[in-house]
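Sequence dictates fold. Next comes a concrete instance:
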Amino acid sequence: MTGATGNGTGPGLGAFTLRNVPLLSRVGADRADELRTDVDAAVAGWGDALLLKVDRRNQVLISGGQVVLGSAAKHSPTPDEHAVFLGRMPDGRHVWAVRGALDGPEDPHAESEVLDLRRAGAIFDDVSAQLVATATALLNWHDSARFSAADGSPTKSHKAGWARVDPVSGREEFPRMDPAVICLIHDGHDRAVLARQTVWPERLFSLIAGFVEAGESFESCVAREVAEEIGLSVSHVTYLGSQPWPFPRSLMVGFHAIGDPEQEFVFSDGEIAEAGWFTRAEVQEALADGDWNSESESRLLLPGSISIAREIIESWAFAD
């Protein structure tokens, strides 16, 4: 595991960076976090605020590449206890989100469809991507955090939806995020490892990923997960970027690392069914064929564009 906890990738070792910001990491609105503690100011903007509705299946209404936002005031005179404050739009209006049935667009002639973040992330503009990713993460957390993790007491939404509080003790709890690493292993030249999980259909391949354990750094997690899942030792673990993954509450932290193609694969933890070294040309061809949802007969199908895995793979495949 030489270099597994720090050394950056140097010249000749396949250094590359992400070509684009991962789709769910885009920023298009002001999160206005100061209004979470000045709730009166946040509520004061409700009259002309916009409202994002997310249904129980985490679906939203989309029209023209944008999420459909309705009038907050038409929904209710003031924010109800389950509304969450998402921030300010570029025009200054506040925007909130609630869990509820989806309404049609205000323009009855506008074409619209109901999609979730996984299927709509690639067509969203920056504002929509940020709002839906944030709303999905927050609302999912509220759904599972109705009672205190400390003593089981019922909790109430607090700080415009960015905390929950025990009204008796005053103890606050905040939205939980579970960090996970995702890593492209390559030989420093023209080959990279792609793997298929046991629960995936044939031909579906992606990168090695796993959750960070207590007391563990991201880099150490990369080395451990790669060793556990495919039996390789890696070096030169290098950070690339990150992306929220609110399914239900993860943060994906992307890396690349050097592996040895002569080392034998060992699938010791049962999560990986098969893995292989693929050339840059093979990966480029698979990327051109589309993604997991395509009708391609390619022997290699890769993740869709909403995943940071896709951005990492593309960035390596087309690195200068």
Notes: Residues 1-11 have pLDDT under 50 and may be disordered. The CA atoms of residues 155 and 166 lie 5 Å apart. The chain is about 20% helix and 25% strand. Residues 126-144 form the longest helix (19 residues).
